[in-house]
Amino acid sequence: MFGLFKKKDPVEKLQAQYKAVMKEAFDLSKVNRSAGDAKYAEAEEIQKKIDELMQKN
């Protein structure tokens, strides 16, 4: 219950976004390979942002 009002830090938000984009990329890769590759590229950009934030801490 106490975690209900806890704010997520930017790294946690980006990690959740990365996970969602990777799942979407996997699902797209089964149907449309080029769209799946584009989503993987988007996920890599998110991962770079996560790495940059981790370096600052």
From TrEMBL:
Superkingdom assignment? Bacteria
Q: Which Pfam families does the record associate with it?
A: DUF6435
InterPro entries cross-referenced by the UniProt entry: DUF6435
Q: What is the name listed in the Swiss-Prot or TrEMBL entry for this protein?
A: Lacal_2735 family protein
Record organism: Muriicola soli
